[in-house]
């Protein structure tokens, strides 16, 4: 399940634009897979749990461009 509110707002906007929930869902799916999760993006998901049910959900999505080979990879240092 994806709980990202921006995805929900995108769906509502597409329903208003297209006038059909089914078409809006297809449009959102196309945008999500073609623009956010394509091969040129390094898509990451922010995950969390719904505590009483121990269910994992997607809270948000981050889709920066993939670094090209000429850019050095940045390695995060340790916290402790």
What features would you describe in this structure?
- The chain has helices at about 5-20, 20-35; strands at about 45-50, 55-60.
- Helix 1 (about 5-20) crosses helix 2 (about 20-35).
- A two-stranded antiparallel sheet has the order 1-2.
- It has about 80 residues and is an alpha+beta fold.
- It has one domain.
- The model has no long low-confidence stretch (mean pLDDT about 90).
Please supply descriptive tags for the structure shown above.
two-stranded antiparallel sheet; alpha+beta; 2 helices; 2 strands; flat; single chain; 80 residues
Radius of gyration: 16 Å
Major sheet strand order: 1-2
Which percent range fits the helix content? 25-40%
SS-based class:
alpha+beta
* Number of beta strands: 2
What is the residue-averaged pLDDT?
Answer: 88
The number of helices is: 2
Task: Give me the strand/helix succession.
Answer: HHEE
Residues in β-strands, percent: 15-25%
Q: Could you say which overall geometry the principal axes of the C-alpha atoms support?
A: flat
Could you write a compact summary of the structure shown?
It contains 2 helices and 2 strands; from the N terminus they run ααββ. It has 80 residues and is an alpha+beta fold. Strands 1-2 form a two-stranded antiparallel sheet.
Question: Helix and strand layout, with pairings?
Answer:
Layout: H1 5-18, H2 21-36, E1 44-50, E2 55-62
Antiparallel strand pairs: 1-2
Helix pairs in contact: 1-2
């Amino acid at each position: 399940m994806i709980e990202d509110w921006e995805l929900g707002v995108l769906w509502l906007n597409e329903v208003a634009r297209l006038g059909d929930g089914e078409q809006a869902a297809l449009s959102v799916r196309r945008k999500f897979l073609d623009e956010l999760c394509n091969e040129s993006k390094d898509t990451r998901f922010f995950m969390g749990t719904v505590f009483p049910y121990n269910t994992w959900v997607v809270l948000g999505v981050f889709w920066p461009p993939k670094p090209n080979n000429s850019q050095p990879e940045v390695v995060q240092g340790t916290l402790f």
